[in-house]
Structures are given as structure tokens and as C-alpha cells.
Design goal:
mainly alpha, three-stranded antiparallel sheet, binds iron/sulfur cluster
Length: 156
């Protein structure tokens, strides 16, 4: 299932589409670049046939890309890319816990975050809802002020 979705991302990438936005998307694109390059080298050396999608699929599988699919973003947090994990900052990780603290995710700020094309509708909807609140006279001034933490997108 996970590999199938990853393959769909790769197909989008190969078709020249956008895999997502944010630092995590840049990292994923760089990995896809490396896979495509390796597949081309294998083809040039006669180790893969032209258009042999199976080779790229195997390379994708072997790349062991850490990717968690989420409703508001995807997370590339993995053992080798802990840096910039906003969810891990200023908190105590429960003993025995592995992986990101999803409930503390900041999709708009995390270095491992990918906001995919499929997530954009949620953010548009949220933006529309906030704009409607601003237009309502009953909205208290404290709720109109920008958040000093600049933590838009927080799930907490
Ligand atoms: S902040 Fe979100 S995207 Fe970043 S590592 Fe944590 S869960 Fe993943």
C-alpha cells in the first residue's frame, strides 16, 4: 500500500508533475532524481531495458524512503532525517516512543513535511473559514490578532 502510493508519487514526478511543497518534498524529489539517474545508468550499461518500469520500482523499494501519509501533510521523518523535526522540539519524548510525535506536527514548518497537492483543499477550506470569522463582527479582537507563535497548520 505504502509502496503503491510512493510509486504514484514517482509516476507524477516522472510525468513532470509536482510531488508536493516544502522541504520534505525537496528531499523526496532529490531521492527520485537519484533513482531516475541510476535507472538511466543501468540502461546505458545494458543492465536494464528501455522503459523497464520494474527496475525503477525495485530501486524505489530498495531506497527505503521513510514516508508517513497524513491527512494534513506527509512526514519524511526517519532515523536519518531527525533534523528539523518540529514535533520533537521542547518536549519530552515518552519512553520507548519511536518516530515523530504526530499530534505535535507543524505541517507548515517541519523540515520533513510534505504538503501534497491533495492537502491543498484542506488549507483552502481552513483559510476560507478564518476569513469568514474575520468578517463576523462578533469575533473577539483577541481572535483576530495574528498568532504570535506563527504556528499555522498546527494540529494541537
Ligand atoms: S513536525 Fe510533522 S512533518 Fe515534521 S517530523 Fe514531526 S510529524 Fe513529521
Amino acid at each position: 500500500m505504502r509502496l503503491n502510493r510512493l510509486s504514484e508519487f514517482y509516476a507524477t514526478y516522472k510525468a513532470g508533475g509536482v510531488v508536493g511543497f516544502g522541504p520534505g518534498a525537496d528531499a523526496l524529489t532529490a531521492t527520485f532524481d537519484a533513482i531516475k539517474e541510476t535507472a538511466q545508468e543501468m540502461k546505458a550499461n545494458g543492465l536494464a531495458r528501455q522503459g523497464d518500469a520494474r527496475v525503477e520500482y525495485d530501486l524505489l523499494r530498495k531506497a527505503k524512503i521513510s514516508l508517513r501519509f497524513g491527512t494534513f501533510n506527509h512526514c519524511m521523518f526517519g532515523e536519518h532525517n531527525l533534523a528539523g523535526a518540529k514535533c520533537m522540539e521542547n518536549t519530552i519524548v515518552p519512553p520507548g516512543h519511536r518516530g515523530p510525535l504526530i499530534d505535535r506536527c507543524l505541517p507548515g514548518r517541519g523540515a520533513n513535511s510534505i504538503i501534497g497537492v491533495e492537502h491543498v483543499k484542506f488549507y483552502r477550506s481552513e483559510k476560507g473559514s478564518l476569513e469568514r470569522q474575520l468578517e463576523t463582527k462578533k469575533t473577539a479582537p483577541c481572535r483576530r490578532a495574528p498568532c504570535s507563535n506563527r504556528c499555522w497548520g498546527s494540529r494541537t
